[in-house]
Amino acid sequence: MATKQIIVIGGGAAGFFAAINVAEMRPDYRVIILEKSNKLLSKVRISGGGRCNVTNHTFETSELVKNYPRGAKELRQVFSRFAVKDTIDWFEKRGVKLKAEADGRMFPLTDSSETIIDCFLNEAKRLNVKINLEVEVLDLVKQENGQIQVITNRTTYTCDAVICSSGGHNQKKNYNFIEKAGHTISELIPSLFTINLKSEAITELMGLSVKNATVRVEGTKHQYTGPVLITHWGFSGPAVLKLSAFAAKDFFEKNYNAGILINWTGSLSEEQVKNEFEKHSASKALMVNAPLFDIPKRLWEYILLRAELALTKPWIELGKKQQNKLAQVLCADRYQMRGKTTFKEEFVTSGGVNLKEIDFRTMQSKIMPNLYFCGEVIDIDGITGGFNFQNAWSTAYVAASSVG
Predict the structure, then answer these.
(1) How far lies 165's CA from each of 160, 204, 378, in Å?
(2) Beta-strand relationship, 223-230 and 209-217
(3) How far apart are CA 286 and CA 346, in angstroms?
(4) CATH number of the domain that 395 lies in?
(5) 295 and 262: one domain?
(6) How far is residue 30's CA from residue 6's CA, in Å, rounded to a whole number?
(7) Which of the residues 5, 171, 239, 355 could staple to 226 if both were Cys, CB 3.0 to 4.6 A apart?
(8) Mean pLDDT score of the chain
(9) If we measure between CA atoms, which residue out of 149, 187, 167 comes closest to residue 371?
(10) Neighbouring C-alpha atoms within 13 Å toward the C-beta of 294
């Protein structure tokens, strides 16, 4: 019987993980990776500032899926097959130990993405996975015997199954061959970006961060609480990046021009804030010297001025009207977003192969038999913190297990 041939499209995280697992589970199969560029694993290399944020220390599936603005429901069954614990074990069996940081992000002990890259390249070599660079897939043609012809810029391959892991892109043309195969591509929208402000005085406080603030998009239900960083162009930090992912479609529709409300206290109401003021109402100390709610001193000074309070005012002289104004600024400080900035090179795109067209028990296409999908090519994206890689490993593993 002829050896079965499996083509993996894309030499990124999901592609390598799928190829290695197919080759390991099916030693009699011939596995070939086709990579469009002349580089392999480029996103792995830059992830986590070059340290590679492999996954997140979130073991409960019910908690894990909350970190995916799109695809949470579908990933629930995928993670029941291969989740965070499996990822840790998979790498450990291959000599790569992972460590968790305080915020849950997990990295290799070496703090170097090259450790992950070397692991993948060595495994691919050991298992005889063939890698062809600068091969662009142009078309997938279904054959009567169930095989698929993969037409590329160089040659045509005939294979028994295709695993498509061509990654997330911000241009529709990168999905042409998938659309030609009959699939729908959900609108490609940026996710994970920072908020730009235009000539707002707060940007002069660049470099300051607040450990716990709530950022909300005016007129929507979207809000996120966590660290907020003030930059020379606007707002960044985990809360802003996570908000950008969950509100990606709203921001897109508003053309990145939206009202942004910040609660600098975290999640206290104006009433709770005023109760806190009452505790200081007899104090002769200057307000400027006694920042509340863990707010850095320079930002506290800025907030007082924003509430039209003199920096020479003592607590004892804070009247009811002024209390209301200060509480309002602390709980709903409003800014006008004018544009966005992509978060480093780690861009993530919301959009991709429509979720309804994939069987998530196997990752197989419902439109073309023996075509499988994994990773960011699907309309699934996670927030920052290792969640996009976990999606890549899990969907790739399920696709690899289902092939053949």
Answers:
(1) 16, 43, 9
(2) antiparallel
(3) 44
(4) 3.50.50.60
(5) yes
(6) 6
(7) 239
(8) 95
(9) 149
(10) 14
